[in-house]
Amino acid sequence: MKKEIGEWLVAILIAVVLIVLIRSFLFVSYTVDGLSMDPTFEDEDRVVVNKLMDNFGEYETGDVVVFNSEAGPAYVKRIIGTPGDTVTMEDKQIYVNDEPLEEDYVVHRTDSYMDNFTLQDLGVEGETIPEGQYLVLGDNRPLSRDSRDFGTVDESQIIGEVQLRFWPFNRIAVNFD
């Protein structure tokens, strides 16, 4: 009996250690709060965030990331500009390095509270996004608090890239570019 209890305790301990390691270094889940990423994500959607990207990859325009906010809980937003990019918005059209950005995921194009901006309007010094900084926007531009409000996001704030929506079950999806 003692041997069996010991085996169970070892199995439980190994499971707990694996869970802690996976959550700390590989993947973590988050719940989307609000409609700022609609229609890509809805309020209360649950997503899996790949934390490996933070250590081994570079984020690209179009990646959906979760990052820590100084204003409260973590945000889910889309990367629009990466280090070295120039980004402007004119008449609801984003331009990255003077090329229009095709954004099929943006369906709410009316009544945006900030239709035009330059990097300087967002508090960036210089003509391009600085090294280690990212410009992020929500897909639902009229409702989103994003770089238009708080400027660029430091790479150290980014938790990882959203890889999977697993809830609700009828909307399971991957690849949010």
From TrEMBL:
Principal subcellular localization: membrane
GO molecular function: serine-type endopeptidase activity; signal peptidase activity
Pfam families: Peptidase_S26 (PF10502)
Enzyme class at the top of the EC tree: hydrolase
Top-level taxon: Bacteria
Transmembrane segments: 7-30
Subcellular location: Cell membrane; Membrane
Keywords noted in UniProt: Hydrolase, Membrane, Protease, Transmembrane, Transmembrane helix
Annotated catalytic residues: 36, 77
Gene3D superfamilies linked: Umud Fragment, subunit A
GO biological process terms on file: signal peptide processing
Catalyzed reactions per annotation: Cleavage of hydrophobic, N-terminal signal or leader sequences from secreted and periplasmic proteins
Annotated Peptidase S26 domain residues: 6-167
Alphabetized CDD domains for the sequence: S26_SPase_I
Membrane topology annotation: Single-pass type II membrane protein
Record-listed E.C. numbers: 3.4.21.89
PANTHER family per the UniProt record, alphabetical: CHLOROPLAST PROCESSING PEPTIDASE, SIGNAL PEPTIDASE I
Role noted for this protein: Essential for cell viability.
UniProt-recorded name of the protein: Signal peptidase I
